[in-house]
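LOG
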Amino acid sequence: MSEEKTAPFIEHLVELRTRLIIIIIAVFVGMGVAWNFSSDLLKFIEKPLTGKTYLTEIKKDVYLKVKELAPAMYSHFKLDQEVNKPQKQHPLNYSAPLEPFFIQCKISMMAGFVLVLPIVFYQVWLFVAPALTRRERKMVVPFVTAATVTFCIGAMFFLIIIWPVIINFSLSYEAEGLQSWFNISAYVNFCLRLILIFGLIFELPVLTLILTRLGIVNYQFLAPKRKYALLASSIVAAFHADLITMFVIMIPMYLMYEISVWVALIFGKKRTNSEEELPV
């Protein structure tokens, strides 16, 4: 009897190993392709260090509007110093041999992973497909497409909206006797880790859609657990040291859960008349 139970378990492990090998090979191929533009990606990550971001442009426009509408206030608070403040370069530094090379490898690997996301999600789908019905297996194309697109949206949302906020906040602590000196490894590792986190956070509605269509979860299961989702978001965010990073992780994570609740309500399987009414 134990041998009968062990055989399927070993088969699952063999299947998992096969899928992981394919994913690893695909990521390395994607890494080779991404290597050619890894320097451009590093420059993009470094852009907030120039001091010129969408935040500084918004601030400048607001100050100029204050100058137009309230010249006295503009002069009193010396906002002209902020408007005409020269941009300061904050170059990255490295202190170990081959450190920039390994950073280039990490950036290329992350970019390669994003390039082969359809293959990654397809392998994930093939691993779980034996547990699905024939009708459910037809959802492979929507799943792979939606999962890839949402991960990319999450990553770009972080890089374009959140990353400049974090760096701008860090640079705001500069003062006389306190200057920034960013290490390239710490800087890039922090960025890549958050790219992965935001990509996975934005996967939550897609995962919920699949689970609701399969009947595993529903609106009635998710809606009452909002407080637990908020608590879980806070716990995950608490692993990051600074307050600003905690909030920029916690808020999108909870918003994705809230969107997932509505996804379950709109796209979930319809309940029978004998089931309870939806909770308010």
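LOG (cont.) second protein
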Amino acid sequence: MSAQKTLEDLIEKKLKIIADHREVPSGVVDELIQLGIEVEARQLSVGDFILSDRVVVERKSVGDFLQSIVDKRLLSQAKLLRETFERPVLILEGKGLYSRRAIHPNAIRGSLAALVVDLGISILPTRDEKETALILAAIARREQMAENREVAVRGAPKGLTLSEYQRFIVEGLPGVSAVLAKRLLEHFGTVEKVMRASEEELQQVRGIGREKAREIRKVMTAIYETEGSQQLPQRV
């Protein structure tokens, strides 16, 4: 294949990023659109941007990052990212990490170290929304073009292998990502056994807590209603 043909193929394939609907007013989405990237706004239960079936990005301003240390919600959020996606990334946007609040620098360094060493989360600093968009675009380009990976959006399956079709079915459960679907199938062996598993059995799988197990069982056992069905949390 010629270099010109390769370039044409890359241009023809449009990058796509799924953004949490709360990120739309931030300015990052506008920057992504200006870069020619297709952005789909959705309600995400994990992360702010999904760049492929394995990469999720949590975007935090320096102020929000420091507040999350104070509130002690940083590690719980980070663990959820790690449990749901194979390659979680934290974008730390802004300046003044060690000067904005009266938080001891060692506490900040300790939190950063825990994210990287204990949870395997990559941390990328950016100056502003524009640079954040450029980083997102670079990762999406690498995932979707260089690695030929798909964005984790459910659609009509075409040409799937048996194992891919099995994962596709399990991913339809509430709160079940591509990573969790694979874990569930590896643990139970078949789609049928996943669907028949009790709440207690589901919780034996890493990333399935009590609430998520309850929602899965609710989908499996609730009587179907044509109208007025109760809404469930959207899957990432």
